[in-house]
Specification:
- It is globular and about 70 Å long.
- Among the domains are: 18-62, no CATH class; 212-283 and 367-533, Phosphoenolpyruvate Carboxykinase, domain 3, CATH 3.90.228.20; 284-363, Phosphoenolpyruvate Carboxykinase, domain 2 (Beta Complex).
- Helix 5 links the parallel strand 3 (109-112) and strand 4 (134-135).
- The chain has 574 residues and is an alpha+beta fold.
- It contains 16 helices and 26 strands.
- 28% of the residues lie in helices and 18% in strands.
- The strands form 6 sheets. Strands 7, 8, 9, 10, 11, 12, 20, 21 and 24 form a 9-stranded mixed beta sheet that branches. It has a 5-stranded mixed beta sheet with strand order 1-2-14-19-13, covered by helices on one side. The chain has a 4-stranded mixed beta sheet with strand order 4-3-5-6.
- The structure holds sulfoacetic acid (SAT) and manganese (II) ion.
- Residues 215, 237, 262 line the site of manganese (II) ion.
- Sulfoacetic acid binds next to helix 7.
Length: 574
């Protein structure tokens, strides 16, 4: 994440105010640091000084972001055994965390607003909201008072991962555009420019200012005739966003370019086109499952200048994880993320399931030439998706904008390792934003619905839903996925061009027989991929309606309720 990149955009959008916490303790600077601090803009300097008074650090270092600085920080951490160098790859490093600090902690991620309803809807069944955690300003003040004063007084003990799992709290103050994070060093909890700012705070700014901050990848797809389109796609964490964003298409003549793999900021331009930027500078991707077969572009991206967390390590200075799919040379041994000797077949995995790579986007061999374009890229289609082993077809298209918003609100997916959930369960994850909402989901859905009616002459993107993960009775995937997913993108593009036939079904438009290009694919059962089992859909439609009506209560937009009721009605008539 490049703060400069984020800040460049912030300047267009709003001025984030920085936290000021009064305390009597005097900050201590060295001469050199004085210079760095002196060069800061006034309100940033105030923030640093008041934070220093509050947290009482021994020293303050103002980061410049230079290469020299990065190397000296890594060198210091290496000397303290907090990171190890991976000599098989140029400037690659491994950090293994405290096993209690490996994922986002949703239960300790809160949004602080005066009114609870600004943050979460009130469920109609009297239970606590599943759509975020609200904290009152009074409780927030108290909780912060229990954590921050003097918290940097004691030196960090070398060779241990600094975290405080009992006291972890990630607090957002959307009205002040502030974030305060305590006790975790895990990406989503501590890289504050990412989920905390670019999604939670930014989604609130976007609502206030009429744009969208979304948990979406952005990719460019060019057909063999040279026609290029951009699409944005929302999938829950660890559902293959990075793989799709960097796909190597298996259909001859097609080309994919990557704009971003996780976050999209989008607004309609003066010509009514939805334009998207990726506010990030790099990728923070899940390592397990990444291989030269599943994502060769990611493998090339992470071959240098990359920080790995919680992956395994080879004795010859390389990395290892489940599904890396590279042979271990004779004589080379493995060490697991917990630091124990590891051999294939061991009960525990070598890499943590949520182990990650953090790597510069510019190293990805297929970055789209427009990926840093300040006006953003024009989005023609929005794709929702999830990990659905049963019942959900490979691809379907929404009937219209409100139906598409309903499809986004009805997203469900098998749970992943990116958060603290146990086991594999199907979770509701509206717009893949459930863990990242900066405000009430009911208001969020209304904001999306308004995109159709606000402003004139808008070219609304068409909306699709995909599922690469449907399985047969024996539990085998019905669809090869990865590079073959370009067949689905091809169908989507031909729908946009008015050239692909579709059948109307109760859930949406599915490809007419023969309209999805399956040429050269062996053994794909198209019928099983597109079947709509009535009993499954009756249950699904009922669950969606119940979830939305109970969770959103009086904040459920009537247009979404209408869509939920209509899905149930259409399914009943199947
Ligand atoms: O867990 S993170 O938020 O850092 C990454 C993700 O879930 O997409
Ligand atoms: Mn994500």
């Amino acid at each position: 994440m490049s703060p400069a990149r984020i800040l460049r955009w912030c300047r267009h959008l709003a001025h984030p105010r920085l936290s000021v916490w009064p305390s009597s303790r005097q900050a201590h600077w060295t001469a050199n640091q004085q210079e760095g601090v002196g060069a800061l803009p006034g309100h940033v300097r105030e923030f640093v000084e008041s934070s220093a008074r509050l947290c009482a650090p021994q020293d303050i270092h103002v980061c410049t972001g230079s290469e020299h600085e990065a190397q000296s920080m890594l060198g210091l951490m290496e000397a303290q055994s907090q990171v190890v160098r991976l000599p098989r790859h140029q400037n690659c490093w491994l950090a293994c965390t405290d096993p209690r600090d490996v994922a986002r902690v949703e239960s300790r991620t809160v949004i602080v607003t005066d009114s609870q309803r600004d943050t979460v809807p009130t469920p109609s069944d009297g239970t606590a909201s599943k759509l975020g955690n609200w904290m009152s300003p009074q409780v927030f003040e108290r909780e912060m008072g229990l954590r921050f004063p003097g918290c940097m007084k004691d030196g960090l003990s070398p060779s241990t991962w600094p975290c405080n799992p009992e006291k972890t709290l990630i607090a957002h103050l959307p009205d002040q555009r502030e974030i305060l994070s305590f006790g975790s060093g895990y990406g989503g909890n501590s890289l504050l420019g990412k989920k905390c700012f670019a999604l939670r705070i930014a989604s609130r700014m976007a609502k206030d200012e009429g744009w969208l901050a979304e948990h979406m990848l952005i990719l460019a797809i060019t057909n063999p005739a040279g026609r290029k389109r951009y699409v944005a796609a929302a999938f829950p964490s660890a559902c293959g966003k990075t793989n799709l964003a960097m796909m190597k298409p298996l259909l001859p003549g097609w080309k994919v370019g990557c704009v971003g793999d996780d976050i999209a900021w989008m607004r309609f331009d003066s010509e009514g086109r939805l334009r998207a930027i990726n506010p990030e500078n790099g990728f923070f991707g899940v390592a397990p499952g990444t291989s030269w077969k599943t994502n060769p572009n990611a493998m090339e991206t992470i071959s240098r200048n990359t920080i790995f967390t919680n992956v395994g390590r080879t004795s010859d200075g390389g990395v290892y994880w489940e599904g890396i799919d590279t042979p271990i040379p004779p004589g080379v041994t493995l060490t697991s993320w917990t630091g124990s000797p590891w051999t294939p077949g061991d009960a525990e995995p070598c890499a943590h399931p949520n182990s990650r790579f953090c790597t510069p986007a510019s190293q990805c061999p297929i970055m789209d030439p427009e990926w840093e374009s300040p006006q953003g890229v024009p989005i023609d289609a929005i794709i929702f998706g999830g990990r659905r082993p049963e019942g959900v077809p490979l691809v379907y298209e929404a009937f219209n904008w409100p139906h598409g918003i309903f499809i986004g609100s009805a997203m469900r997916s098998e749970s992943t390792a990116a958060a603290e959930h146990k086991g594999r369960v199907i979770l509701h994850d509206p717009f893949a934003m459930r863990p990242f909402l900066g405000y009430n989901l009911g208001h969020y859905l209304q904001h999306w619905l308004n995109m159709e009616t606000e402003g004139s002459g808008r070219h609304l993107p068409r909306i699709f839903h995909v599922n690469w993960f449907r399985k047969d009775r024996e539990g085998s995937y019905l669809w090869p996925g990865f590079g073959d997913n370009c067949r689905v993108l091809d169908w989507i593009c031909r729908r946009l061009d008015g050239e692909a036939d579709a059948l109307e079904t109760p859930v949406g438009y599915v490809p007419a027989p023969g309209s999805l290009d399956l040429s050269g694919l062996q053994g794909v059962q198209a019928e099983a991929l597109f079947s709509l089992p009535k009993a499954f859909w009756e249950h699904e439609a009922a669950q969606i309606r119940e979830y939305l009506t109970v969770q959103l209560g009086p904040d459920l937009p009537p247009a979404i309720l209408w869509e939920a009721e209509n899905l149930q009605r259409r399914v009943a008539e199947m």
